[in-house]
Amino acid sequence: MALDAVEAISQLRDRSSAKRRSAAKRLRKLSDPSAGPALLEALKNEVRDSRTWETQYQMTMALGACGSPSDLSYLRDLVLRRETLHAVHTAGGDAIVRLSHMEHSHAEAIRWCLSTGNETLVGGALQAVAMLRLVLDQETVTNVLDFIEARSPYDGIYFWPAVAAAGWTGQRVHDFLTSCVSSPRSDVVEAATNSLTGDYGTYRPL
Predict the structure, then answer these.
(1) Model-level pTM?
(2) Nearest to 160 by CA among 142, 178, 133
(3) CB-count exposure of residue 19 (10 Å: 0-12, 13-18, 19+)
(4) What is the DSSP string of 153-193?
(5) In angstroms, rounded to a whole number, what is the distance separating the alpha carbons of residues 102 and 33?
(6) Which residues contact 16 (CB under 8 A, 6 or more apart)?
């Protein structure tokens, strides 16, 4: 039987990393704001152990689903630390956009992620943009595409903006998607083909 929120919050303190990870995944699915403080505290403890990257990823993603904008300061600090794991950069970008969206400040959050130059962080941010189906203003779209198109077409960072662009408008967006249809990556081709018809497709991040 699936854990309820109270049980999952309690399990965040389990000695087993696998059980802590399972609890975080459950809370991420429940998206219960009451779990936010416990997830923040659990994540602060978890990032001390570099061996538990999968658990750190799920806790960060869960914080994005259950937390509040007051958690943004910690998340921004976390993703800027040299020792922070790549998986946490991905989840951190996703969580930062989700929590910023609660205050309608997601465009600023996306630009902040871009300003770091961290491709993994940006990839996570664009994952959230795609999953939330956020329609970005033209300036932010331009900033995103400038960042993406400076990368090799073999780079996986093209995938999430190709999905998210289903809801974006303008000639620059159309040209981006058209170029992605000729991508050497089949996942990008599929996403761009769908987006050209306004279809976001069905994707589920880990």
Answers:
(1) 0.96
(2) 133
(3) middle
(4) TTSGGGHHHHHHGGG--SHHHHHHHHHHTT-S-HHHHHHHH
(5) 12
(6) none
Q: Which amino acid is at 162?
A: A
In tens, the pLDDT along 42-96 reads: 999 999 999 999 999 999 999 999 999 999 999 999 999 999 999 999 999 999 9
Query: What CA–CA distance (Å, rounded) separates 171 from 79?
Result: 33
Which residues touch 25 (CB under 8 Å, ≥6 apart)? 58, 62
How many Å is the maximal CA-CA distance in the chain?
53
Residue 119: C-alpha distances to residues 65, 79, 113, 155, 157 (Å): 22, 12, 9, 10, 7
Over the range 76-89, which residues count as b (16 or more CB within 10 Å of their CB) and which as e?
Answer: bebbeeeebbebbb
